[in-house]
Amino acid sequence: MGVGDFMVIDADWTLVWITIIVWAIILRSWEKSGILDRWNSSRVFKVILMIRGKQGLKILEKISKPRRFWRAYGEVSLWLCSLALFAVTLVVILSFISALLSPPTIDPPSVSEMVAIPGLNPIIPLGWGIIAFVVSLVIHEFGHGLIARAHGMRVRSFGLLMLGPLPLGAFAEPQYQELMRAPRRERLRMFAAGPATNLFAAFILMIMMGMLASQVVAINDHIHVREIVKDSGADLGGMQPWDTLVSIDGQEIIGVEGFRETLGDYSSGERIDIVVRRESGLRETITVNLTDKHQYYSELGWSNESLVNIGVEVGDPFLGVMGMSEGTAGIDRLAGPFSPRWQGNTLETAISVPIHSLTIMLTPFQMNGVAIHPFEQSLLQAGDGMIASLIGLDGILLLVNLFFWLMWVNILLGFTNLIPMVPFDGGHMFRDFIHGSISAVKRVGKKLKLWNIHALKVDHFASKASSLSSMFFFIILIFIMVVPYF
Asked: What is the Cα Rg of the chain in Å?
């Protein structure tokens, strides 16, 4: 790490600490003047504002009336989160092993990039980020509250945890004694309902994103390229990322399949003239020397057998472009298997949904903090649908950004809360899973008259296992975040 890297980190931390200190002073003055009491709020850890509200309880009571339905919802949530908890645990452990055996060689992120605070993190825009976090946190806690009420547990209040104008979390306050006395499965449902509701909300938003994707069409049928292979024919010929391919040797290029069919008429070593439209809108004609596709992939380490299996032969032409996409690619990428242009069957759609949930988390990193690249937006126009006729392209893109950030934050909260460490929901679930497993062993031993574990020992062992798990995963996460700096 160079001197400049330390200066960036120091500057980030300075801004963070100044913000926290100023906010602590403001909270202290509000506390002394009685403002926090009038707001039914209090300070937590000196710098966090805990804002309580009663209005949400009335809404909660009305919605939670069909108790049987919400208990069934809690059971589905428990199964979903049990699977997701296992997957998250596996991913964290594998990431730790990978960081241990193969430390990253790329430059480490700055402090601001490591915290999911809208505006401070460069990939999370302040406006959309605050809206998405507040809504998603309320959804999360409302899920907890619904299942608590479905099982007869009282909820004292709802609220938000704030650090200045930025939301850090939300909370539902069930009666602690009732929560602890509740049967283990009911408590597990309550803990699972929060992250599950986030994941269900993200799924609904994906469907809504697909509806929005059906309301737009591409301005034209040409394709554009997102990446240029270094030292390839396209690179040496002057092609640039986001160039649109208009024609090859006078033959118009229509769609990705049209490009492949046209290029398939050539062989490596031939020269072609390509008309491209730059991101600026200007048209240019460039001359490209086609290289050998078989040789390119062989140099990347592909075996001859693998290349034969995918239909690549010696002499096949290689232009040197990656990410060939049609005009609707930006919004189709967000809608995933729910895009009207998705060509998979029902089984492929079902398999693609969880994969899409994970890949969509990379979008802000790939697009520098936006849902759709501005160039990809410029390729869209409103279609003939009812929504398009009512709000136009600008309204559709506004909803696309709103739905995307809501989806992104809901997925983030859903999976993050399933890390098996307290205070996350996954940590509480892990403790109850351990307690249930030991209780099962106790029952078997008692039935077979082999052993009889005292109930207090079961509680003690479960609590101890939960504490060690939390510490273990905390150390792992810190290691994964810190190792890039060494």
From this structure: 27
